[in-house]
Amino acid sequence: MSHDIDREPPSDARRAFLKTSLGIGFALAVQPVSAQTIATPADGLVAGEVKLPSLGVDIPAYRAMPATGGPFPVMLVVQEIFGVHEHIKDVCRRFAKLGYYAIAPELYARQGDPGSADIQTIVKTIVPKVPDAQVMADLDASVAFAKASGHADTTRLGATGFCWGGRIIWLYAAHNRDLKAAVAFYGILGGPASPTSDIKPTNPVDIGKTITTPVLGLYGGKDDNIPPALVEDMRAELKQANSPSTIVVYPDTPHGFFADYRPSYRKPAAEDAWARTQAWFKTYGVV
Q1: Residue 31 to residue 178: CA distance in whole angstroms
Q2: pTM
Q3: What is the CATH number of the domain that holds 209?
Q4: Which residues are catalytic?
Q5: CB-based contact 189:204 (threshold 8 Å)
Q6: For the chain, what is the domain count?
């Protein structure tokens, strides 16, 4: 089953709250951070917070790109459930070091501040208010912002996301046919959804057969949030689309294996996934 996720988000979801700037450091919900946390320096880059217009307001985003040259291929970096905190900013800098214009919009900006909230608040009072259609619009606005900057080549558009953002990657691949390729890190594939909902009308497994954009899914075999049977269902859906998309499962690996600042980090899987990610975008002409 597929469903229209391009509907206009309800106005009350857009106006109830507005986060106007990004936080500094790591989200409160992930403290303390691990000693193995990767820190990518900003030397040779233009990196920092920007404001981008979307749906009538300006939302904060983190942008990183090489200091010279361009226009650069574009990488949309879609946040974890914790919002655009230091790990997501670091991922943007990693892509910028590879020659990308990377941008990560704060996709909860109208619903709450995940950076200063505990995990229960994020899960129960922020995430359930964020409409998929709003997220699609904010990602489209991020592409438009990049194009207007003069530093980005949006004909070479890629996207990657983690956890909450991994689910969004599958949806965005169905939504934006200009996306050349994408990588979804342990994105939720199923769960509660309703075609009549303005928040979450569908799930990736429901629309897998419509996804023709090449998406690389990277999953852990011991992910308590994503049953192996659901991964197989998604593979079957993608096969129906005759899609070049593929899903790699790392055995005995938990959810969040790429998150180097958390105990879930698994270095061998993370390094292999990062190499596969770079190769995927090269294969499909993003960079």
Answers
A1: 38
A2: 0.94
A3: 3.40.50.1820
A4: 163, 223, 255
A5: yes
A6: 1
